[in-house]
Design a protein that fits this description.
Blueprint (H helix, E strand, L loop, with lengths): L7 E4 L5 H9 L4 E5 L10 H8 L7 E7 L3 H8 L6 E5 L2 H11 L3 E7 L13 E6 L29 E4 L7 H8 L3 E4 L4 E3 L2 E2 L1 H11 L3
Parallel strand pairs: 1-2, 1-8, 2-3, 3-4, 4-5, 5-6, 6-7, 7-8
Antiparallel strand pairs: 9-10
Helix pairs in contact: 1-6
């Protein structure tokens, strides 16, 4: 995200109005909806549409999908006005989705070591996050922290975002260590699973941009 001097912030897993409004009030750049039924933050297309119709300010809406079929995405887009599609899939599938729907696509990219960092970006942005635990029931949203030292000095030529285990208390350090141009948080700003805390959202955004 070289065109942006401040750290970009995405708040993911919105399920209710208070949290959504707090994202807008405190200047989040992106607000994410999870369309994966095994997630505790899953929302229906209808609920996402109701939330997305609220005052959004400059925030963009992001829909998260896990290995979706085209019909899965189309059914959501019939209801909810998404600005970005965030995908767990192969590079090739992510490219195909971008071509089919004509929307920016972000590819979630779990890594376990520096040698696994992507050399190129097949779509509009890469989300770098830790590999999920072996017993995980979902590919992300597990509050698992990436070893930030893997990213020290990494300067890819494409837009990317840091995700995984970020909180109010560690996001400032994460940005300093990794140089991440943008960060993604979900459980780290919650008062209960799936319920966002407005005060934590405010502090997270502030701390992410404190460098």
């Amino acid at each position: 995200m070289p065109e942006q001097s401040r750290t970009g912030v995405k708040i993911c897993g919105l399920t209710e109005e208070v949290g959504f409004d707090a994202c807008v009030e405190h200047g989040a750049d992106w607000i994410g909806f999870v369309f994966f039924e095994r997630s505790p933050r899953f929302v229906t297309p209808e609920l996402a549409a109701c939330l997305a119709r609220r005052e959004r300010g400059q925030a963009k809406t992001v829909g998260l999908f896990v290995h979706p079929q085209d019909d899965d995405i189309a059914k959501v887009l019939d209801h909810a006005p998404l600005d970005v599609l965030q995908i767990y899939a192969s590079d090739e599938r992510a490219q195909q989705i971008s071509e089919v729907f004509g929307l920016p696509v972000w590819l979630s990219y779990p890594v376990a070591g520096r040698e696994e960092l992507p050399p190129t970006c097949p779509v509009q942005r890469m989300l770098i996050e830790p590999r999920p635990p072996k017993d995980a029931t979902r590919p992300g949203g597990n509050a698992q922290k990436l070893d930030w030292s893997l990213l020290a000095g990494w300067q890819p030529s494409f837009p990317w975002m840091l995700a995984g285990g970020l909180t109010v208390d560690n996001v400032g350090e994460a940005v300093r260590v990794t140089g991440a141009p943008a960060v993604d948080v979900s459980s780290g700003v919650e008062s209960a699973q799936g319920i966002k805390d407005p005060s934590l959202i405010a502090r997270f955004v502030r701390h992410a941009r404190s460098n």
